[in-house]
Specification:
alpha/beta, globular, 15% strand, 8 helices, five-stranded parallel sheet
Length: 238
């Protein structure tokens, strides 16, 4: 089993600890980790080259390609981020921006439709849910249907050893419950693609069919055509 982890910060604090607790249920798995911003140090500049010319034309292609390759090869994707001003870290947002060409209206990777993912966020007070939503939004538009989310509220401190024992036990119990749920899955079988994901795909397909009918054939439309998605082929039926 292969697990790819993207950490929204290089700091090894509470979010890192929660991720390590989750991984205890996956002994023996082949784990690849990326730490942001180290493994993706540059912002997306909005040049749109990935849409019009191809992802290999991105100025940060070497960083993005390494991460995307690992994501596609993974059986389970784990993405973590503490809440910064009630949202995911800037480094995480920068990475998700870089991967915009993999959103369903553009060139989604067919492998993503059978994958599973876990999102781990935490904060003091409010912000964990909105931070998780930042990440989950992209994952769902990549085509991933089965996404587990853990939102941790610390309440009194940002250092694991200084959090009250009662709070640490509660956090540990909740993250372990999620870990157990995902550890018992048979990863030899692709994840079920939910109806909402199929609806998104069909709507994007209608747009691409109209684009092709109008003769405005670009990189995205050619990608859809070559995958057979403008016909009867579907990425969840591979």
């Amino acid at each position: 089993m292969k697990i790819t982890i993207i950490n929204g910060t290089e700091k090894r604090g509470v979010t890192y600890k929660l991720k390590e607790i989750l991984l205890q249920r996956f002994q023996g798995a082949e784990i690849t980790e990326f730490y942001l911003p180290k493994d993706c140090p540059s912002f997306c500049v909005g040049c749109t080259s990935c849409f019009t010319k191809g992802e290999d034309c991105c100025k940060d292609f070497n960083y993005i390609n390494a991460i995307e390759k690992s994501l596609i090869e993974a059986d389970l994707i784990v993405i973590t981020s503490p809440a910064y001003v009630m949202h995911a870290t800037g480094a995480m947002k920068a990475l998700l921006d870089h991967l915009a060409y993999r959103w369903m209206p553009h060139r989604p990777a067919p492998e993503m439709f059978g994958k599973r993912a876990v999102v781990i966020t935490q904060c003091i007070g409010a912000g964990a849910k909105s931070s998780a939503q930042d990440i989950k939004h992209s994952l769902s538009w990549w085509g991933i249907s089965q996404i587990g989310v853990f939102n941790g509220a610390l309440m009194n401190d940002i250092v694991w050893d200084k959090i009250s024992e009662k709070r640490r036990q509660k956090l540990t119990k909740n993250i372990d419950r999620l870990a157990f749920k995902f550890a018992k899955i048979n990863y030899e079988k692709p994840a079920h693609t939910k109806l909402i994901t199929k609806i998104k795909f069909i709507l994007c397909r209608l747009i691409q069919k109209r684009v092709r009918k109008n003769g405005d054939i670009g990189l995205d439309n050619e990608y859809w055509y070559n995958n057979g998605w403008l016909g009867k082929s579907r990425p969840w039926k591979r």
